[in-house]
Amino acid sequence: MGNLPTEEIFHLLVRRLARALSLSHASVILANAGDRTGVVATAFEQPQLHDLEIELDKYPEVVSAFNGQIPVLIPDLKYCPLYAPLREKWAREGTEVTIRSVMALPFPLDEAKTGVFLLRRTDETAKFDAADVQFAETVVKSGVAAIQRAHALETTRADNTRLEALAQTDPLTQLVNRRALTVTLVTEMERVRRYNAPLAMLLVDLDHFKLINDTYGHLAGDEVEVLPWMTDHLVLVVPSNHNLTRKKSIKLADLRKERFILREAGSATRAAVAHHLKKADLEVETVMEMENPESVKKAVQSGLGIAFISKFAVETELKARSLVALNVNGIDINRELKIVYRKDKHLGRAAQTFISMAQITRSKDRTR
């Protein structure tokens, strides 16, 4: 279920609840505490309905669930104080209401959005009781985990698509860069070999870029200054509810069945991790590759796997206990970070200040 889109998971859950509890109506409403309107994401009784905006003051049980973040049970609308103003309005307007029993179950969707499962029965069925609420809560809680997982996957996929576009685009010309060109050339060369087809390539000097390179030289040929900076420690991070957090000592064997999230091929972090895993004679299952630390952290927090990452990159998450760093017997990954700049280029005030602060920090660390 976790691999399905969020909307499909919503629809599956309301359909299962409707059949199990003999519901006449079952829907998911997205909003936050204090909102005057909400959005109906899906409804069992109207499967074609999506993203319908509604006024929440017509649903006092939903408002109470959003505000209190606890389940709200109304066994009979005829006697519930919450519905007293609406009952008077229905009487004045001559509106006949067939809904008898209602429950509203709140759930978190992400940090910025919450939702409520609104479940209803008509006069033709029995009233909701505490057992019905307990059963519905169990189904919703299990489904919310899948919803959050799907939401994290959708966010990660969107981030990866955006980062892939950035990685293949030259920021100055907005054309494909050398990396994208190399990948394309390799793919085309393999294709023409496979089908024994001809291949032609046209080289064009745009805006005299070649003259600039020939006159001023390439970065690879420039002399650079290399200054030692600091030691970076890579730690193994897992979600706070992971089974490994309950172990006092983590052995290499404990990691063999775990799913790992690694940085992309070619990154320094990936190379350091691969070197130490090989040195420890440890083969692991790689389930995802990410191109930046933020995507790695989100994936681990969502329970998609575990990862080695710079301790500097997860200081906030470790303090908040959304991630836990583990010490693994037999693996200690440290690397030396350096500051590199071209000697023939003038450094601005910000760059000079950064280098001075970095050297002061390094001197303090060495004297501790």
Give a verbal description of the structure.
This protein is an alpha+beta fold. The chain contains 10 helices and 12 strands. The chain has helices at 6-21, 60-68, 84-93, 130-167, 178-195, 209-216, 268-279, 293-301, 315-320, 349-367; strands at residues 25-31, 37-43, 52-55, 72-74, 99-108, 114-122, 224-239, 259-263, 285-290, 307-310, 323-326, 333-342. Strands 3-2-1-6-5-4 form a 6-stranded antiparallel beta sheet, sandwiched between helices. Strands 7, 10, 11 and 12 form a 4-stranded antiparallel beta sheet that branches.
Short description:
The chain has ten helices and twelve strands. The chain is α+β, with helices and mostly antiparallel strands and 368 residues long. 22% of the residues are buried.
Instruction: Please count the beta strands (DSSP E, at least 2 residues each).
Output: 12
Strand arrangement across the biggest beta sheet: 3-2-1-6-5-4
Tally of helical segments: 10
Query: Which structural class best describes the helix and strand composition?
Result: alpha+beta
Largest sheet: 6 strands, antiparallel
